[in-house]
Amino acid sequence: MQKAVKNKTPSGARFLAGVAAGALLSITAAAHAQPAASGASGTVARGRVTAMPVAPAVPAAPVPPMPQSASIPHGASAPERGLPAMPVPMPAQPAPGASAASAAEEASAASAASAASAASAASEAQAPEVPLPPEPPEPNVAQRTGMPPAGAYAMRQIFAKEVDRRLDVPAADQQAYGRLLQRSLDEDGHGDLADEFVVMVDRSANVQAVFVYFRAKPGDAWSMIGAAPVSTGRPGSYDHFVTPAGVFQHVPGNMDFRAEGTLNEFNIRGYGARDMRIYDFGWADGERGWGKGGKSPMRFQMHATDPEKLEPLLGMRHSKGCVRIPSTLNAFFDHHGILDAQYEARAAEGESMWVLKATRKTTPWAGHYLVVVDTGRKARPAWSPGPGKAVRQHIPAGADMVD
């Protein structure tokens, strides 16, 4: 008879069994921990890890590039800015109670529209800055000292000498525009403005002109110093706004900057020749010139343009919403500080106004405001001719895609 013996396991076998059990526990723990560690979701069934599909991460909206032709000196402190005439995306929200199928259709349409405008996506902003509140206007030298206005009226001769693209506006129209300027200032709460220069633009498609006005005292009639052709916003294309109308204060909070004079992808100097000044009026509500219209925030500026390719087109709507002016008018505004009352006040307080040139000769009657109106004229006045047929036939490619 065979003896019954106790079933014993050798110590080496017990060691191997322990290692195997530990490995199994580690694998099971790792399977449960994997979803939390990797960001994926999954289930564990009968010892198997079943991965669940994960929605792809939504790519971040592209950050708009700085304008290629803008210049800020090294060491200067200037705020980041959006591109001029830059729309802010305003995604549509589904109506309350909309069905899932309707929402899916809207999402599909939005995706298609996004793909169609991918080439223009870089010009869109993620969100606008908060518009600056109006600043209390600082008095200019003439307003502080009671200087006689003869020098201000003498600016007519300087304008005629320094600005090479001028408009000869008849006296009757000068007076009519002066009355329109006064109405605009009245509506904006500046009806008593006097003893400073004011710049006004008529954005009407049949006018496209800029005027400089002055009066010595409230209640006086406004007197025209000079006028020149401009180009304002041309609706009809994506990212093109109708130039906003209203009264715009020129303040250092929306710091101006200067053009580098570099060529863009269309071989065009969008801001004009090097050192031209870009007058920045900050964010404004602009009427969209594409799609279903409506309004969006846009960056509103006044600046020169390519002297060879685009200056001959002044006198017709052609910008993305900003006001294009002749280069010599830009230099006139800059050198004489026609709109620099607030900038000069900050400089006098010791602030660094780097955009102001050391060689400037700021007028004692420096102003604060740009006024944009729309006369809606049905016919083109003889004193404001548009570009000729020969010029229109040679518009360069991409000319309407610059600022």
Sum up the structure in keywords.
alpha+beta, five-stranded mixed sheet, 403 residues, 9 helices, six-stranded mixed sheet, 25% helix
Query: Which percent range fits the helix content?
Result: 25-40%
Query: Hey, roughly how much beta strand do the residues contain?
Result: 15-25%
Distance between the termini: 108 Å
Please tell me how large the radius of gyration is.
Answer: 32 Å
Biggest beta sheet summary: 6 strands, mixed
Instruction: Give the ordered list of helices and strands.
Output: HEEEHHHHHEEEEEEEEEHHEH
User: What is the SS-derived class?
Assistant: alpha+beta
Q: What low-confidence regions span 5 or more consecutive residues with pLDDT below 50?
A: 1-13, 26-68, 73-83, 86-104, 106-127
How many beta-strand elements? Answer: 13
* Spatial shape: globular
- Count of runs of 4 or more consecutive helical residues: 9
Averaged pLDDT? 79
Biased composition (Pro residues): 130-139
GO molecular function, one term: transferase activity
Organism: Caballeronia catudaia
Region (Disordered): 65-103, 119-148, 381-403
